[in-house]
Amino acid sequence: MGRLLAPTLTYLAYLLAAVIGSQRQQHRVQHGSCSYTFILPEAEHCHPAKDFQVTNTLQRDSPTEAEPDATESKERPSWNERKLESLESAMENNTQWLQKLENFIQENVRSGMEEIKRSAVHTQTAAMLEMGTNLLSQSAEQTRKLTDVETQVLNQTSRLEIQLLEYSLFTNRLEKHILLQTQEISRLSEKNSFLEQRLLALEARYGRELQGLESEKQQLHDLLERQSRLVSRLQGELGSSTLNSTSLQRQQAVLTDTVQQLLSKVSHCNEISNTPKKEPLSFRDCAEILRSGVKESGVYSIRLHNSTQDVKVFCDMKTRGGGWTVLQHRRNGSVDFHRGWRDYKTGFGEPSGEHWLGNDIIHKLTSSREYSLQVQLKDREGSEAFSHYDRFSIDGEDKNYSLHAEGFSGTAGRTSSLTHTGSQFSTKDRDNDRCTCKCAQLASGGWWFDACGPSNLNGIYYPASSSVVRYNGIKWYYWKGPNLMATTTTMMVRPAHF
Ligand SMILES: *[C@@H]1O[C@H](CO)[C@@H](O)[C@H](O)[C@H]1NC(C)=O
Ligand SMILES: *[C@@H]1O[C@H](CO)[C@@H](O)[C@H](O)[C@H]1NC(C)=O
Ligand SMILES: *[C@@H]1O[C@H](CO)[C@@H](O)[C@H](O)[C@H]1NC(C)=O
Ligand SMILES: *[C@@H]1O[C@H](CO)[C@@H](O)[C@H](O)[C@H]1NC(C)=O
Ligand SMILES: *[C@@H]1O[C@H](CO)[C@@H](O)[C@H](O)[C@H]1NC(C)=O
Ligand SMILES: CC(=O)N[C@H]1CO[C@H](CO)[C@@H](O)[C@@H]1O
């Protein structure tokens, strides 16, 4: 306001000066519907008369036209008088003049002052009014601008608020989303840790399995190497045997030649002698084979009496004159003797090694004629002994292969270890003993158990290192007690009257 006021005051001063200095002192002020016109007095052009010389030099003592008059009066005698008179009149005129002037000036000044005052007041009022109007309009303008600014600010504020609201909504949504994500992440991490544990467990398990598999693989690898070495050795052998076979073929060819020569010779002989051919020999037992001239122990074929069946048996041609047909033989425990009824009935093992000839065959053999029995024993210390029975036979299966043994003699004990006549044969699956127990299961093998008796040559073959007393081993009680550490046992028969 102060700044506005200063130019206004300047303007007012200017207006005042203009009012005083202008030719037509008139000023109009418009305020609302009213208009004010101020007419101001003219100061410069308000001369009294043409001859009424008024100059700004108010202190003019005498007019310039009066001087020539003064020079004329000097030439005349009464000049001083006249001069005096004129001076007096002039003075009077001047005085009048002065008075007039004074009056005029006084009047003029008074009215001028009033006018000035009035006009000044008017001007001032007008200026003030104008100023007021200006101020009013300016303030209205300012108010309008202010309102505009206010609306703009409000607009901005509302817009900002809307944006803020949107942002907060967005933020809320984001927060919710983040919360969901966090939950998801935590769930996933839980799952992950669970899976890791599972993985660790699986790794541990599979690691162990893998180690086992690797060791197995190593073993298989070793086996494979051994096998391949074996294969290569076999290949070498095959090569040499191929060579051998070619040499054998050559030998065979030579032999074939020889045989043909012999055949031709034989046919020639036949032609010469023309004697009838003998029937091919069949032997009932090893004694007959021995009698036919064979002196070597070994496996031979016999045909049982009253039968068409050929049986391979081992013939002992050395012991006490030979001719023994072997029923039972053991020497290294390679054959399992803990067997059932059917195996003992038909026989098992190989006649060249450990074997049991078979109860049916023994029955048929010993029932076809009278036989004696020889039991040949050898223990680990190398001592040998035997038990002999003059008469020996067993019944058929219908009587459970009952034992008949008489005429005991020998070195393996003073009394017979074989049970008395009539004992039935028992195996682990057929219990025919006189014990409430099952001797074949206790003592193992198949034998003529009594209850359970002092002998069992078909017991378990224990290795030499075993020193423990066992009741299921090989037993020939009256020679070596309950525990015979036998290396070989042989049961063999020969016709009683050999
Ligand atoms: C706010 O101003 C914008 C332009 O700046 C205009 O388009 C809008 O209509 C205004 N809103 C209000 C509520 O005045
Ligand atoms: C081949 O024959 C020789 C003797 O002729 C014998 O020493 C060798 O063991 C035989 N080889 C085979 C693989 O039978
Ligand atoms: C077998 O021998 C028995 C006597 O031991 C006899 O009764 C039977 O007839 C014989 N069988 C044959 C086929 O010879
Ligand atoms: C037992 O003897 C037989 C016949 O001599 C032989 O084939 C087998 O390999 C031997 N077994 C053992 C374990 O010594
Ligand atoms: C032979 O043994 C069986 C049982 O193993 C038995 O039933 C049968 O009576 C026995 N036979 C004789 C003649 O005792
Ligand atoms: C001496 C002088 O100048 N007198 C004059 C005074 O005024 C009158 C009229 O105004 C003149 O006529 C006189 O001559």
Topology:
Layout lengths: L1 H20 L4 E6 L2 E6 L26 H10 L3 H195 L12 H6 L6 E6 L6 E7 L7 E7 L10 H6 L1 E2 L5 E2 L2 H10 L2 E9 L4 E11 L8 E8 L28 H5 L11 E2 L18 E2 H4 L5 E10 L3
Antiparallel strand pairs: 1-2, 3-4, 4-5, 5-7, 5-13, 6-7, 8-9, 8-13, 9-10, 11-12
Bound molecules: 2-acetamido-2-deoxy-beta-D-glucopyranose (6 copies).
Number of strands: 13
Ranges with pLDDT <50 over ≥5 residues?
1-9, 66-74, 275-279
**Mean pLDDT reading:** 83
Query: What ligand species are in this complex?
Result: 2-acetamido-2-deoxy-beta-D-glucopyranose
State the order of secondary-structure elements, H for helix, E for strand: HEEHHHEEEHEEHEEEHEEHE
Termini separation comes to: 172 Å
Biggest sheet architecture: 9 strands, antiparallel
What quaternary form is this? single chain
- Beta-strand proportion: 15-25%
From the alpha carbons, calculate the radius of gyration and give it in angstroms. 85 Å
Number of helical runs?
Answer: 8
The portion of residues assigned to helices is 40-55%
Structural class by secondary-structure content: alpha+beta
Please state the overall shape, judged from the principal axes of the Cα atoms.
Answer: rod-shaped
InterPro entries: ANG-1/2/4 (IPR057439), FIB_ANG-like (IPR037579), Fibrinogen-like_C (IPR036056), Fibrinogen_a/b/g_C_1 (IPR014716), Fibrinogen_a/b/g_C_dom (IPR002181), Fibrinogen_CS (IPR020837)
GO cellular component, one term: extracellular region
Pfam families: ANG-1, Fibrinogen_C
Keywords: Angiogenesis, Coiled coil, Disulfide bond, Glycoprotein, Secreted, Signal
